[in-house]
Amino acid sequence: MAAPTLQQPSFLLANLKAESCTKPLLQRCQDLVKTIEEYPAKELHGILPWLVESVFGSLDGSIAGWNLRLLHSRCYEYNIALEFLNPSGPMMKLVYKLQAEEYKYEIPVNYLPGPVKACIQEGVLPDCPLFHNKLQFPLSGLLTLNLALNPFEFFMFHFASCLVTPKSHPQGAQGGVADSAYFVLVNAYLKYFLPSEGSVPPSPFSDSRGSVTAPSPRSSSVSFAGYGVHSPSLLKHHIFHQPSVNADPAAQEIWRSETLLQMFVEIWLHHYSLEMYQKLQSPQVKEPFSPTEEHVLVVRLLVKHLHAFSNSLKPDTLTSSPSAHSSPLEELKRVVVQRFVQQKLYLFLQHCFGHWPLDASFRAVLETWLSYIQPWRYTGEAAGSQPDQNRTVPDKWEPFVQENLLMFTKLFQVLLNRAVRTDLVNAKNALMVFRVAKVFSQPNLAEMIQKGEQLFLEPEHVLHHRQPRGYLTPSQGGSFLSSRQRVVTDMVFRVKSHVYALEGQDCQYKQMFGTELRGAVMKLIQIIAQARQTAKRISDHSSEAAAGGSFLSWFGMGSSDLNNTFSGAEHEESGECLKKTHEFLDKALENLCQIFKLNQGQLAQLIANLSSSQDDGNGKQLPDCIQGENGPILTDLGRQQIISGLRRFDIQYQGDPELQPIRSYENALLVRLFYRISSLVNERFGGNMNALLPSGLPGSSGPPLPGGSRLVLQEVEAQPDVPPLALLSGERG
């Protein structure tokens, strides 16, 4: 390569583009490392947009880039990509080198998440400070607005967008999400920029003032104020009046940490606003964004790390009020979950709960929710001698439960409505119900939730005099309220503020431990009991079928060889899976009774009555329905009875007997073959065969014989008097 001073930036970029089409990834990365080391920032400035796009792909999905989401440890390029993109690798050195010179790069507003884009296009400044002071106003109007981002923001925007941008992937390119290069890099960036121990390593480059300039510094008087919380004011800031803030020296230390966090939250979670979610309840409204299972798993990684990051807060900082003595990173740990994540994650999960398919892939959403509502699992403390299910939730987590009440109660109610529509005979679905019941049955948790609900239901007058958290003494004009009264008032304010911020001032709160939800829980318990009986019935039937044996076993074939069902169907209904189903549902029933203080005797009687009714009806009762103008209409109970396999309609085929659907005990290939042969024979020789029939016999003067011989592979036991070879032919009667 020639000396850096002899090449122009345009020629350098053209040379790199040309080499990217011919050289393997390893050699390209080696050339890039050398280029980043040798060239000054002025000549590297034009490379960053092309390099970021060639690595992460284009924002419109037309360019796939390195396909980091499909790179796994077994791939040759896996380690090369990780080494080049790690937080202290060559790519980040390029970012820091350009950051020191304060270059800017534009991103069209159209590529921002829906609510942020809509807010800007309506002329209103977004709540997130990440987008403040960055809007560029072209003469052509607001629809062509751009964001001017510094190199670090520009890099993180593309990295975060890589997860949510639809791309066309090669056929057969599948692998585990947790093993992908993208997932590993997300984890590495989180640990590097949001460390549980120590501080964020400084940049290897600095500007003329000796430190990297914070791109969007906060005002020191309103540190983290209002982020992620609805402002009670009805006034909105217009985008042409972007607030100017003074640089806060303390923010210099963690601006990269805040930028990474805000970028991840905005790009991954902020696809739904409260207003948008309310509109989505209408079936005519099209979904604006549908997350994938991979997306949800990465969000869970973020949630788990933020809990660990927040829980690493020093004990003296945790108990004391914010002060100038604590570092900015410690202050970030104090507020990171509530003010940066809570609101957007709540709407994200609520959307997933309501729109995700009723299949086992919902497990990713479920575990993300359970990870968020159990921060005590990520404290780094040893579990001790108590088993996990018997560990009491410490009282110190009571404020977290109160400030996240809807995360526990509202999402539990939404999950309840989902569970009653799910096939609980499936072991994977039964496992999810068991997981939720197990988490909520942890000692002391239900009591904390009940106390939070009681605080929310306190009379409204306690909020009429909203005062700052630091109360005045009587000599300073404060009240003579006792310390206990002040604490209760503060807790009431905390819970009500949380609920109104997430659901709006006019929300109708339903108690988790109220009468209405208790009835819904009893309905779920009944469905669980029905699913247990169904699983037992299927298991018994499978055992009998396995013990019987059939004619096909003479040829070394099993019934599974003839079924054209999807792969894994037999696995789902295998004896081992049904045994797990029974075990999961048994434990779920036990835990639900513990959570809602249900009477074990009543539960046992309910299950006994259900079992008795099923035995009496012998499974032949019709599903529950009402009579409509055009016939019976299924009720909700009837739908659940069909889903659970408890009841079914007696459906009979009434068309041409020779054209009825192929049975599971028939060989589909031979049925079709013999039907075509018999049809061809009847078509060509039907007249001759009719002429040969003696007069007076059926068919002697009528139309040709039916053209549909079927090869029916019946079990020998079904027709004991018929020789086996006779079963290979004959008309269907």
UniProtKB/TrEMBL annotation:
Membrane topology: Single-pass membrane protein
Gene Ontology annotations of biological process type: ceramide biosynthetic process; glycerophospholipid catabolic process; sphingomyelin catabolic process
GO terms assigned for molecular function: sphingomyelin phosphodiesterase D activity
Keywords: Membrane, Transmembrane, Transmembrane helix
Protein name (Swiss-Prot/TrEMBL): Sphingomyelin phosphodiesterase 4
Source organism superkingdom: Eukaryota
GO CC terms in record: membrane
Record-linked Pfam families: mit_SMPDase
Subcellular location: Membrane
